[in-house]
Here is the input.
Amino acid sequence: LLALLPLAAAQGLEPAPLWPYSETTARAFATLTQASYCDVGAERQALLEWECPECRKAGFELDPSTTRFVERQEIWQANSTFALISRLRLTEPKALISNDGCVVSVRGSETLTNWIRDLQFWRDPVAFEWCDGCFVEDGFYTVTKSLMVRLVPGLQEIGCVPEQELSKAGPGATSSLYFTGHSLGAAVSTLAMCLLHVLGFRVKLSHIFESPRVGNHVFASVFDREFTRKIPVFRMTYNKDPVPHLPPKLFGFRHVNYEVHYDKHGGYTICPEAEDRRCADRYPLLGLVTHGSDHCTNPLGTRGSICYCPWVDPPKVQQELLV
Here is the structure.
């Protein structure tokens, strides 16, 4: 699965096109991100009947009969890595949702083993077979490879297959994917998009929230060429959240485009260049240590939070830093 031929080395490119940004669509994807935190007990069971009301406002809905949970046990904990997948169907034509497909929503850190993987960014980055000269954070890549083992069969089970297999997959099959995720889930989504693209899946749109830096400048450049210049890919950040500033640029890591940065008043700025000082990069990392609660706060999320199941009230004070 992961024995991939390099796509190419990064080259000098013209500025990426400015894709239309819709807050209605972004809010729907924020709700889908929150749904990945409904991973236990009654909340998890309720997902099997959930059609995502916020999604309807953006012109699509989920088909609950196709909702599946993709999870992997790491170290000694079950459900360490969790993703929600489901078929997405259009209810009315919208500019950013072009056709039916499958949504993939990857949960952020919630278990001890997630924390162990998150902290691995202090180690040296590892080579990423997707492109020549690409290096990515070791812990994020380890989680992604673990998830891919079950993600691909899960997608195929609900009718999402590589483009080259559509002719033999039967009526209703699609290769279109829509991605979202928060924090660790955003980093994993970024890498999974690359690996699934090589297999023949076609990502149509993504909104990832509060992502840490995933790879080096070569990875960021090739990602922009293969995705940002062809489809709307939005990396959402909020106020002074410290997580988008990690791992530090000093270690050779760079963000991918596009960034949509929300301030504490709910206004937003779209930055077409990575590490743009008009967005989150305006804040120095050392001044962000006391802003861990900004990692879960988001005006697009239900009840102003993105770290909790959309029908569950979050704690009034969110001091934890859930990378």
